[in-house]
């Protein structure tokens, strides 16, 4: 492991003006619903995909930890799924900072799918898709790298927090974990483990019959997350049965909707249109913003059309659903200053620190803003004024 990849979050938190002060904490907590009988504050969290830029979520979570927030329902796509899975473990924020602070992300790229694939800095691969497509075509591969090294690391890390399967999440009352994936073979968005439960019914589709699982809840969390972060062209597609699975961000990169509906499973029609229960606590959405890549792009070739289509698929659907009602719960983390791309796995300590700092400060500003309160949150989600 390269020493240049190491960084130390505690040093950032000691910088003037970064950490929440006691007075600010008191102000923020006054906007939350009352704690439970044990004095505990809960929240649900949904995390957007964004590759290695997801380091910013760690800073956001430290800010939430400083407020004493404990997580119940969690969901995410790609890097957001990694974050959600980490939060579903027994690991503390100190543990997570130590693990991710020491991590050399380039170790995930140690296994290329073919010796015929020649590339330079992985940060540029998806910015220049023409060469990527050329080498994949020559080598007859569907992704530059195997995601097995990542799967092995994640499985070991989650095990440290006593998390192996989705059944382990349920051991804490009220806890849930949902991971979004994209099924290319059938043109479906799947939410795991919910959609795996379909195989247990007599009329389940062919995919679920192929899986032959003892129980959907026994499905590996590490495998679910690996499927969700299989960035197309960059990582080889994963598989469910004989179906090819890629990054869930293709169909929903920011699944903020996931706990606003009673729907379970892609064929569960009874719950469509049902009225959600009044929430007992906040659902926060953590979104990564990069103004450098969200500006209008110049489209002047078939390859640039392909790139623009890819970006549109990953962003447009969720932006459409992120209406005015969502602004009271979406924590936008502007990572533009960090100058990090989705596949920038050669992340050095300075840029890790930038992402972490931006995550903490963005979350702090959100909580201190006038637009944030429990009453406004409920009203924005359609539940009216508190009685």
Can you describe this structure?
This protein is α/β, with parallel strands linked by helices. It contains 15 helices and 10 strands. The strands form 2 sheets. Strands 1, 2, 4, 5, 7, 8, 9 and 10 form an 8-stranded mixed sheet that branches. The protein has a two-stranded parallel ribbon with strand order 3-6. It is globular and about 60 Å long. The termini are far apart.
Poorly predicted tracts of residues: 262-273
Q: How large is the share of residues in beta strands?
A: 5-15%
Structural class: alpha/beta
Order of helices and strands: HHEHEHHHEHHEEHHEEEHEHHEHH
Instruction: Identify the overall geometry.
Output: globular
Counted beta strands: 10
**What is the makeup of the main sheet?**
8 strands, mixed
Quote the average pLDDT.
82
Q: What is the C-alpha radius of gyration, as a whole number of Å?
A: 21 Å
Q: Helical stretch count?
A: 15
Query: What is the share of helical residues?
Result: 25-40%
User: Distance between termini?
Assistant: 56 Å
In short:
The chain is 36% helix and 14% strand.
Essential attributes:
alpha/beta; globular; 10 strands; 36% helix; two-stranded parallel ribbon; 15 helices; 387 residues
């Amino acid at each position: 492991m390269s020493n240049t990849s190491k960084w130390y979050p505690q040093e950032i938190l000691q910088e003037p003006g970064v950490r929440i002060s006691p007075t600010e904490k008191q102000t923020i907590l006054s906007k939350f619903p009352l704690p439970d009988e044990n004095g505990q504050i809960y929240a649900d969290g949904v995390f957007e995909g964004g590759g290695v830029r997801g380091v910013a979520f760690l800073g956001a979570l430290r800010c939430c930890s400083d407020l004493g927030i404990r997580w119940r329902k969690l969901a995410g796509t790609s890097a957001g799924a990694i974050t959600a899975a980490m939060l579903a473990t027994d690991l503390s924020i100190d543990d997570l900072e130590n693990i991710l602070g020491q991590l050399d992300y380039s170790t995930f790229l140690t296994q290329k799918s073919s010796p015929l694939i020649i590339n330079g800095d992985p940060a540029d691969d998806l910015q220049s898709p023409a060469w990527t497509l050329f080498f994949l075509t020559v080598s007859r591969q569907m992704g530059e790298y195997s995601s097995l090294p990542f799967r092995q690391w994640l499985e070991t890390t989650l095990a440290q927090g006593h998390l192996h399967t989705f059944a382990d999440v349920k051991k804490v009352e009220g806890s849930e974990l949902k991971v979004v994936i994209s099924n290319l073979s059938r043109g479906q968005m799947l939410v795991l483990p919910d959609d795996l439960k379909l195989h247990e019914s007599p009329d389940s589709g062919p995919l679920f019959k192929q899986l032959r699982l003892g129980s959907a809840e026994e499905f590996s969390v590490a495998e679910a997350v690996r499927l969700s972060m299989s960035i197309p062209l960059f990582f080889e597609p994963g598989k469910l049965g004989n179906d090819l699975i890629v990054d869930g961000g293709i169909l929903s990169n920011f699944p903020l909707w996931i706990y606003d509906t009673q729907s379970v499973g892609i064929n569960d029609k009874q719950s469509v249109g049902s009225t959600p229960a009044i929430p007992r606590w906040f659902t926060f959405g953590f979104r990564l913003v990069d103004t450098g890549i969200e500006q209008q792009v110049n489209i002047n070739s078939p390859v640039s059309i392909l790139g623009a289509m890819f970006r549109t698929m990953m962003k447009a659907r969720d932006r459409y659903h992120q209406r005015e009602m969502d602004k009271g719960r979406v924590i936008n983390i502007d990572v533009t200053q960090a100058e990090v791309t989705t596949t920038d796995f050669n992340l050095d300590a300075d840029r890790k620190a930038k992402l972490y700092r931006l995550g903490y400060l963005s979350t702090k500003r959100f909580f201190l803003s006038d637009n944030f309160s429990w009453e406004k949150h409920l009203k924005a989600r359609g539940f009216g004024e508190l009685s």
